[in-house]
Amino acid sequence: MTPTLVRNQLGADASAPADAGTRARDWAEIQERMLAPLYEAVYDRMEVGAATRMLSLGCGSGLAMLVAAARGAQVTGVDSDRERLALARARLLPDAGWDDAPAHSPHPARRRARLVEDGGPAPVGADGAPYNLITVFEPIGCAAGDSEGLVPALRSAVPLAVRGAAVVLAGWGPPERCATAAVLRVAARLADSARPPRTEPGRWRPTLRDDLEDVAARAGLKPDGSGRVSCPFGYADVGSAVRGLLSTGLFDAAVRATDRSQVEKEIAEALHPYRREDGTVWMPNVFRYLVCVT
Length: 294
Description:
By secondary structure, the protein is an alpha/beta fold. The chain has ten helices and ten strands. The protein has helices spanning 20-31, 36-46, 63-70, 82-92, 150-157, 180-192, 211-218, 238-246, 252-257, 260-270, and strands at residues 4-7, 53-57, 74-79, 114-116, 131-140, 161-172, 222-230, 233-235, 281-283, 286-293. The strands form two sheets. It has an eight-stranded mixed beta sheet with strand order 4-1-3-2-5-6-10-7, with helices on both faces. Strands 8-9 form a two-stranded antiparallel ribbon. The chain is globular. Mean pLDDT is 83; it is low at 7-16 and 96-121.
């Protein structure tokens, strides 16, 4: 693998809470792994391996990149969240000194791994070759405006890929197939409690059937297949579930409309039907992905 991390303006939220570092750790340690079945299913379908040169838009704290790299892929990540990228760096580039390591270095993570800060060069792969796979694993389709920054990002990324490269978009499945949708409705209700009601981007909304197809059309991509993956959300206890869900950013509008303590309390109450006798929380969900070609 040749991991590369790039900061970019992909949906940055200026109203993010002051404890951004804590939230990023909650994402990396609690929430991000819930999507691991999605990563594996997509990589199986796309036959990700040593010949794969992948660009991950919205790479978060790097778990999807780590899984691809373990399969032998060369990976490049783009994200706007500095705290999540710091965690991705710890996972993929534990020693920044490897940036200029010789190509014959015995450890694959030490071969020309680059970190490009926001405003730096275009996110080309470490070996300069064009990508043959672009992924967007940050699920879209359950927050107002969550795809607005994605369309221009995709348009900028496509010229960096070979003609006919695969682009994979991910989103939430139908609300009736996602137990977490019932908890996310708390976010919309609390955001609406403000006067006037909050309608800014980031407010939860039900997933629509053609959310992914709409993004593909606006980005000039041609759909070429799709799939659904079971991604249950499982937590050790209610406290972990509250922290994990808050780390997604889907409750930010609710926090601004009320306060964090009220949001935490109401999330905990909404989780009650999904608590098991041993105190763990289990919510079955289905996520969807759309395969496109450039």
